[in-house]
């Protein structure tokens, strides 16, 4: 616990997506299952559609995220 009872979790990359469409779809699936999700572009100098993206979840949710990713065929 840090501060006023707030727990800070490390974010971990669980997937690399090849397009904005793919990363958005995976983000929606993971969030629908109740996971916190961050999306981060790999390159800040490329156009959004031509970029790769990292999908990150809190370290405590990595196993669940991997299960969901496998179950949904990503």
CATH class placement: Alpha Beta
* Shape annotation: globular
Q: Please report which band the strand proportion falls in: under 5%, 5-15%, 15-25%, 25-35%, 35-45% or over 45%.
A: 15-25%
The CATH topology annotation reads as Alpha-Beta Plaits
The arrangement of helices and strands along the chain is EHEEH
Low-confidence stretches: none
Overall average residue pLDDT: 87
Number of helices, counting only DSSP H or I runs of 4 residues or more? 2
Number of strands: 3
What's the structural blueprint in terms of helices and strands?
Layout: E1 11-17, H1 20-32, E2 38-41, E3 53-58, H2 62-71
Antiparallel strand pairs: 1-3, 2-3
Structural overview:
With 74 residues, the chain is an alpha+beta fold. The protein has one domain: Alpha-Beta Plaits. The chain contains 2 helices and 3 strands, in the order E-H-E-E-H. The protein has a 3-stranded antiparallel β-sheet with strand order 1-3-2. It is globular and about 30 Å long. The termini are far apart. The mean pLDDT is 87.
Summarize the structure.
With 74 residues, the chain is of the alpha+beta class. The protein contains 2 helices and 3 strands; from the N terminus they run βαββα.
Features:
74 residues, alpha+beta, Alpha-Beta Plaits, 31% helix
